[in-house]
Specification:
The structure is a homodimer of 165-residue chains. With 165 residues, the first copy, chain A, is an alpha+beta fold. Chain A has one domain: Electron Transport, Fmn-binding Protein, Chain A (Pnp Oxidase, Chain A). Helices cover 24% and strands 38% of the residues of chain A. In chain A, a hairpin with a 4-residue loop joins strand 2 (23-27) and strand 3. The interface between A and B is medium-sized, with 31 and 31 residues. Strand 4 of chain A pairs antiparallel with strand 4 of chain B.
Amino acid sequence: MAREIGTFDAFAETMECMQGDGILLVAGYPPNPMTIGWGSLGVVWSRPVFQVLVRPTRYTFGLMEEGQAFTVNIFSEKFNKELSICGTHSGKDLDKAAACGFTMVKGEQTTAFYIRESKIHYECRIIHKHLLDPATLDPAIIERYYPLRDFHMVYYGEIAGVYRN
Amino acid sequence: MAREIGTFDAFAETMECMQGDGILLVAGYPPNPMTIGWGSLGVVWSRPVFQVLVRPTRYTFGLMEEGQAFTVNIFSEKFNKELSICGTHSGKDLDKAAACGFTMVKGEQTTAFYIRESKIHYECRIIHKHLLDPATLDPAIIERYYPLRDFHMVYYGEIAGVYRN
């Protein structure tokens, strides 16, 4: 059972997992998990917000654009094999949720699905997005992360609920 | 003395103060404090980032554009009087730091100044900014926060240091 917790209660765990590739963003139907290593949490427009980045070249991009919702799923280390599958394959070629043996569950608050095997999940509705503009981005960042100029779309997800599973 | 702490150690305190109008953004020289109620913390481009929002109509906007650095200063409730001065005056008309009796100190890591009387401060260098685009923003947010269409600039500050003062 998913038990609701405070919006920011899992921040420390979330940042820790983020630095260890332990986070899956899920969007679309059939729901597709994608590994993310970057993200922010805070308050914008007086709403709790989780910001995530997706390159327009990714399979997940179309799912985000279509569904306007996503979940962020935090994993413990014992799922390293599954996280590795999600980090090295595209949903274009593989049903990653099935390959990982994940149980995909319809969100409590959003249309996006979450992964029952995650320890914590955030449910988010997209309220804003912006494509990174190289004109206002540190040149060292462009050189390091965007040699192909495939700049990320930044999605602002209003956090509708946070759950410990 | 400012004692350095972990980048995300003060997240809970920061979010709590954010919801209670206890945060001052400082930029420019002479350094000018502005009350902020919104912001996010996380990891983007593998760097710790504090995102803040400033309307281009604000005095602080020019200071951010010029200095490319800022500090975020977290206050305890006993500074309510000072926070109220900062929240109701513009640096155009008043030296708010002097009016509050604040001690402005040059940052340890950045050119921006911080306020010695704050309990915690973040020092940030601007690595990206983007002006909110109404075309990709929830219409309910536009109606509620932007009747004058004075959309915020979102500044991404790379966190160079976090200190308990």
